[in-house]
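The pair is set out directly below:
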Amino acid sequence: MEVKNDNKEDSKFSMALSKENYKLMLIGLGIILIGFILMGGGGSDDPNVFDESIFSFTHITLAPIVVLFGFCFEIYAIMKKSND
């Protein structure tokens, strides 16, 4: 006995996340990368010379805040419901 499936939604392949979610996730990844780039740099080329620039506001405060915001944005991007 053959059963026909008339419901088109069941026969269609559906993704767990929409295209908009993936775009938002890429934006979040970019924010995280910007935060890690801000963390880098500073210091001295000569290991015998200490450079105070590694303790700048950008390296110590701003960059970790940007990275945390990026991770929060990633959570939002994953949890956001699509309008479809």
Remarks:
- The chain has a mean pLDDT of 85.
- The first helix runs from residue 8 to 11.
- The two ends are 35 Å apart (CA to CA).
